[in-house]
Amino acid sequence: MNFDDSSLPPVLPEDAAALAATVAGSVLLPGGAGYDDERAVFNLNHELVPAVIVVAESVADVQAAVTFAAGQHRPVLVKTTGHQIVGKAHGAVVISTHRMNDVTIDAVSRAARVGAGVMWSEVIPKAVKAGLAPLNGSNPTVGVAGYTLGGGLSPTLGRSQGYAADHVRSLEVVTADGELRHVDASSDPELFWALRGGKGNFGVVTALEFDLFPVPRLYGGAIYFPGERMADVLRAWTAWLPGTPEIMVSSFAVMRQPPVPEVPEPLRGAFVVSLRFAYTGTAEDGERMIAPLRAVAPAVLDTVRDMPYTEVASIHNEPTDPVPYYERGIMLRKFPAEALDKLVELVGPDSDSTLAIAELRALGGAWDREPAVPNAVATRGLPYSLLGVAAGPLAEEHQLKKSVAALLDGMEPWRGDQRLVNNLAPDEATDAAAIYGPERYERLVAIKKTYDPDNMFRLNHNVVPAA
């Protein structure tokens, strides 16, 4: 099913006025007040140019926007923060959800219920007040819904608890027919399976309820070493990993830091490698556990400490203001000595790599186990995630993509078959069947045909409805 959304006509002012009369939020057209603010996304190299933006304040607003899109045969794209947007949304209806930001914490049942526009930075403090923690991502400005629908790889609790999608209790979703559906394992098991891992292919999630965990603090942070010691640090870390318990989550990163004030002085403009840790056992046990890694080389900076869960964003210390970049990731099915040597060759001290970050996350544990209520997440059993990030303006787009490709293509011999949807590039021309594998994809296609037969929700890594 091929679409040329760029040929769709503009939305007429009178049609926009009719839509505006049905919603409590805002309806914005190109050139109008507020349009540019609402189409902005986190990645400054990506641009949205939709036919109309509906800034939704309620479920009814979302339903009105979807009904309008159906009547005009337009695609729908949902935007909270825009960390991962596919396509420019030519001719589309963009539903901006940031005003739908209610957060409710139930300390007794250890659950959170959040609106479509909520970011992790809005959930974590409220959960911690109740002595609880979510399966959040590494960046607090990422939207909860998109992250969770794409699987959700938590760098703090994931190895012991699994994917964020594994712990969704229920969702409220507006499907392509404009209907609001309460979806859980009992009410609609097929759609519930597909939504958790199938990203935004099946509707607009307006709210979701998910598990929280009794983790008010942890022992975590990062140790930064001179980049010249990359091989020593990486070799020590990969040898250390098998002996660690599931409550220890760790990752390795090669970082070429920019010389900007936002970067701490010891790291500013430096080439370093970093080990990041999140351990929910005691600080004493954590300190003893990572002592052999601390001894590998003198640290440039060591931030590992006992911390309240409210400070977990400091572990990865990712940008929270919009930046220009290009990123793409793959999964690795193994990481033998030959792969280690190749990674050092590709991004190490003797390489000509200009990547801002090359990150290797160790998975395993609960990430490998199917949850009690299975879902569409396709990457279980793959032990590593590898991500390349190149920073720079759109004028350097070709070089940015070339730098990331050099890393990922170089590691091709160890690439796993399935892909983590949240680590795909916005413009990555990847067949969704390759992302999910044939059996899982066939099931997704059948569910797509039931709930979105005309492929309204196609501005993504698209599951195409069965013919």
UniProtKB/TrEMBL annotation:
It comes from the Bacteria. InterPro entries: BBE, FAD-bd_PCMH, FAD-bd_PCMH-like_sf, FAD-bd_PCMH_sub1, FAD-bd_PCMH_sub2, FAD-linked_Oxidoreductase, Oxid_FAD_bind_N. Its cofactor is FAD. Residues 46-215 form the FAD-binding PCMH-type domain. Pfam families: BBE, FAD_binding_4. Keywords: FAD, Flavoprotein, Oxidoreductase. Belongs to the oxygen-dependent FAD-linked oxidoreductase family. This is FAD-binding oxidoreductase. It comes from Pseudonocardia yunnanensis.
